[in-house]
Design a protein that fits this description.
With 103 residues, the chain is of the alpha+beta class. It has a four-stranded antiparallel β-sheet. The longest helix is centred in the last third of the chain and has 13 residues.
């Protein structure tokens, strides 16, 4: 299974509260529409720190790289990506395999 971890930094003119509302309420309905998406999580910083390298982390799981590429090649994928680009000054994506050490 492929896990995509994205580090998200909000736009400079956006408050952390506004960013949190976007990340936790407004963006997830778009992300949930990605075809082939197995799991989806979003975590947002609890305290404002403008010097932090990221304000949130999103996690997406797909069966494999082909499923990820297919999902983001759809209109739903384009809409989710455009929405993220409109609210984030940058996004860093890590393509990983997860190993649970303690649950």
């Amino acid at each position: 299974m492929l896990k995509v971890i994205s580090l998200l930094k909000r736009k400079e003119d956006m408050s952390l509260d506004d960013f949190r509302k976007w990340a936790m309420e407004e963006h997830p309905p778009l992300g949930k529409k990605l075809p082939g998406l197995r799991h989806y999580r979003m975590s947002v910083a609890v305290k404002d720190n403008p010097d932090a390298p990221a304000d949130a982390v999103s996690e997406f799981w797909f069966d494999d790289e082909a499923a990820r590429v297919a999902a983001f090649s759809t209109p739903e994928g384009a809409a989710a990506a455009a929405d993220a680009a409109a609210h984030c000054s940058f996004r860093i994506h890590l393509f990983t395999e997860e190993k649970v050490i303690l649950e």
